[in-house]
Amino acid sequence: MSYWNHYDYYTPTKPKEVKDGIKLQSKKIGSRWWSKKWISALERFTQSNRLQRGKNYARNGQVINFKIESGRVTARVQGSASMPYSVKIELEPFTDEQWKKIISTMSERAIFIAKLLDSEMPPDIEEAFSISGISLFPENRGLLKTHCSCPDHANPCKHIAAVHYILAEEFDRDPFMIFKLRGMGEKNIISKLRTMRGSDTEVTEGPELSTENFEKPKMVSLKECAGNFWSKNRDFEKIPISVTHPIVPAAVLKRLGMPPFLGDNFLAETEKIYKLISDRAVKEAYGGVIRDEQKQNHRDRCK
Predict the structure, then answer these.
(1) Nearest to 108 by CA among 41, 197, 211, 236
(2) Which residues, including other chains, have CB under 8 Å from residue 217's CB and lie 6 or more apart?
(3) Helices 186-199 and 96-106: angle between axes, nearest 10 degrees
(4) Which of 2, 48, 213, 254 has its CA 20 to 30 A from that of 235?
(5) Is the pLDDT of residue 77 over 90?
(6) pTM to 2 decimal places
């Protein structure tokens, strides 16, 4: 049976099976806001029938491999032909000057660094890019160049769409891959952010330490202090202790990545449990009332 598209007639063919191909692991493609943005760009530029077939290719493991580099993604996708097709997706990387402005803007918000260190993309991080007059994600078709060696006249074709969906899941796992595509990898970004944050604080030398005239503290035997051994020292209250909610909930799980066999809702449910535990810890620490200075400390950490 033949079908009609905008270009010509074609007869659907079954793609050749791929051993150990890359398959989508999540039931819902694009579970995080940044991967949804990536998928949204694809859906704006691609015919719906190509999208569905590309999604099927991605779920069935037709993508053999892919590689993310600065400014481009290359991949091999097995179709119905004997040899895999070569796919290339290009997105212009930012210039050094643009990255300098982006890093400078990001460094002003400590929460950006905290979330990125835990493989979390801050929802308002796009502000850092828009302030520099650029967008992290492609806003029009001209910014995203795609090519496939298949004979399909449509661009993007189903093979390109399949790679897009695989990339979305990869971005879910590691948002730094988006930055790498835009020209700067994880280590470089974190290093520059830390350097920028560190340069904001002036370091001054303190007085030299000397052992001269140093008074050795008086040692008390266990027998002498046995009566109050389990009592707290009078200076105990001076020890600074701050119990607050974490900046990034379930940070360890997000950093390590979620095993696919746990399901899509596991992380969301775990975050709820962590929040309940955090609420209880704060309540126990402050008798049910979070003191004003503790609230302010938490707000300061999130700036």
Answers:
(1) 197
(2) none
(3) 60
(4) 213
(5) yes
(6) 0.62
